[in-house]
User: Fold this.
Amino acid sequence: MFGWYDENQTRMGLAYLFLSSEGRISEADYALFEKFGKSTKGFAGWKKEVVEECENLLASAKSAASRSKIVSEFFSTYQKSGKRSTRSGFGFFSGGELSEKNSRNILFTLASLACLSEKQSAAKQKLVKLWAEANCIDKSVLIEMQDTLESEQAIDGYRKWLQAAIGTATEQVEPVMAELDKNLKELRDGANALIALG
Assistant:
């Protein structure tokens, strides 16, 4: 039975399920899961337990389609209160209420993973929308999050291109990189404000 009492464990558990929704999690997506987890308090101590619980839930899936159905049902029936039906025999986040802020934080994590996942798909985008709907998060919030993520990716892509094109010519690159860093910080600050305030 799921017993993630910590909002970080819940967020990372949902992230793992999300990345595993279309078949076994790939090495690249597992590395992405770990990258997100490393910035999460206590991740190393509870990562194994969360992964095992997710895999136990997904163990009944006989195909990628049934795996996707399990995760879809899980996301669509999830409630902001942190309680969901135990129809499949699993409880989830039984340790208290999931705050609106954390629901939006989870949404931003899922939207980020949808952009960065090795297997980008319409099915993953659908799961992001299901999470938003199940937690009564306005569509405009999701759209703003997705716009922020697309802008971040464009800036990161430009940075990589600039470094490859110009190399290490510090005089030419430093001012542009400083401006790009400033733009990224503003985007991240905006995303944090959106998560905090909705």
Q: What stands out?
A: The CA atoms of residues 148 and 188 lie 8 Å apart.
